[in-house]
Amino acid sequence: MSWPTLSPRIRPRGHEPTAADKAIKAAQQKKAIKELWLLIAGIIAFLLVVRLLRLALAALFYRRSVERPSEKSEKSTAGEGVLPGRTGKASWRRIPQAAASAFRVVAFRVQVPLGVGTATLTELFFICGYIATMLSLALTNSFNLETWFFEDRAAHLASCQLPFIVALAGKNNMISLLTGIGHEKLNILHRAAARTCLVLLWIHALCRAASGLTEKFDFSHAWMRWGATGLTAFTLATILSVRFIRNAFFEFFLVSHIILVGIFIIGGYLHAREVDFGDYFWPALVVWAFDRVLRTARLLWNNRGKGGTEHEYGTATVELVSSDTIRLTLKRKFRWRPGQHAYVVLPTVSDLPTEAHPFTIASIPTSLDGTDGPSEKDVVFLIRGRRGFTGRLREHANRHGQSRVPAFVDGPYGCPPDLSGYSTCVLIAGGSGVSYTLPLLLDLVHRARAGTSEVRRVVFVWAVRESDHLEWISKTLYEALSAAQSTSLIVEPNIYITGRTCTLPEIPRNAMYAPSDGSSTPTSPSEVEKFDKELPVYSSLKIVHGRPSIRRVLQESIDSSAGPVSVDVAGPLSLSASVSRILSSKLTSPANVLRGAPSVTLHVETFGMSK
């Protein structure tokens, strides 16, 4: 028995295809492109429907909870007496919740190592599905892989995807608007799609070259040289986007990426225009220009007017709050949602005056007393000074102390979760990740004061290396705890200092909160005075020297919750991976949910550029 060969058959250029061959080839190219775009549109439409259904269900359940608050309260109180998932009986009514829990575990929490990082099964599904779709559309119906039939089809499929690839990289794009998936999470798909298209373009180029370039297609023609130039630029841009290069030399990567992709699009347009296919390229420029115009308009709008206060217009306050951390504060008239991020432009600090760097906004646009607060908001960023831009900012703060610098803000961006419908919220942060979890806590306190939240308990966990890092959020955290005392919201802040040596402050306590364990007292009166200045009176704060037991924190929070639980994580990749692994275990298994355990939703702050 003999198997058919699957190796590509290279047709020499001396062979003249028939009119029927040309017609078949053109029809196959159009069909492949149409099928590809229909598939992409169908997936986006499906995600849009899912998002609309989730919004509708959230609004429905919220309206019911408002209409029947006393009944819900009675049920919650009754449920608190039993540890869910431990003594409850399985109920067929909880099959939908158990199925949803199983889907969350499999789709979003199982991490697959890839050598250069990790990816969830959902990310792998979309990445592998996209690659398989592109290759199958390019290589099928090619008469036993005869290159003449698929060499140009590969280029057509790759080129038609350029607007899609540019949209996946844009801060303002229709995909995020329709699906509710933030641009930072779409970035991993942007890279996968771009690399797939690069492979197809090389298939086009190598097959053309291997079969021989006739006089009409040799490099004596400018349009052929432009094609080679564009492909070279695209290849370099892809190589420089490899994770370790991107993370080590981000500013160089960013500038070179824009330049090289610009050369590729222009070179590709001049190359394809010669054969009447230039229309594949200019839409990508339109998508890019649309994003840039919106960003410029938003930048001008966010930094408009003088605001009528004493602060200097168009500036920000820079102050060093610890040896390696800067607090950047701007007063602006714009709104954002807790957990969103914005791009900061500091012309006098950056190498290039137009450099924009993303940071999570560590404040909320409302007041802790439940009101909207003043029209002019404090936009606060906590920035760790490392290398590059953040290193220069730290040096500036070291030299000048608290000072003002010209500043502009572009944003907000991102699609953070709405936590108001959960019963228990567990906020876990490592290091500067607190700039994501702190505003979530502040917003929950604000909503509790305003009476627009179902949350009854918040467990706030923050792990930092040094005790002087507490000053980053000491005042803000104290204000949140004070504001929460007049509500039914229970806030349990736990701070873990992981450095080898540290001095733990003495924490005042009152009867409203349980005493903390594991904390020690300062060794001298001067240290007491120091911490009294840095840490206002914390009535509930628990400070421990050591690393947190994430499993124990999650176990206790889930066991004692009377309703759905939200777990929000920000910080090092190892921390988010650890939380994902724990929430993939028996703790949140469908069997437990079937027996009455609360459903658990995990939200992880992700910046796709560094993943």
Description of the structure:
It is a single chain. The chain has 611 residues and is α/β, with parallel strands linked by helices. It contains 19 helices and 15 strands. The chain has helices at 19-67, 69-79, 95-109, 121-139, 147-160, 162-169, 174-179, 183-210, 222-240, 243-248, 250-273, 282-302, 388-400, 434-450, 474-484, 525-534, 550-559, 573-582, 590-594; strands spanning 111-113, 118-120, 315-322, 325-332, 341-345, 357-360, 377-384, 403-406, 408-413, 424-430, 457-464, 490-497, 542-545, 565-570, 600-604. A hairpin with a 2-residue loop joins strand 3 and strand 4. Helix 8 crosses helix 9 (222-240) and helix 14 (434-450) runs parallel beside helix 15 (474-484). The longest helix is centred in the N-terminal third of the chain and has 49 residues, at 19-67. The protein starts with 18 loop residues before the first helix and ends in a 7-residue tail after the last strand. The relative contact order is 0.11. The model is unreliable at 1-6, 66-86, 307-311 and 507-539 (pLDDT under 50).
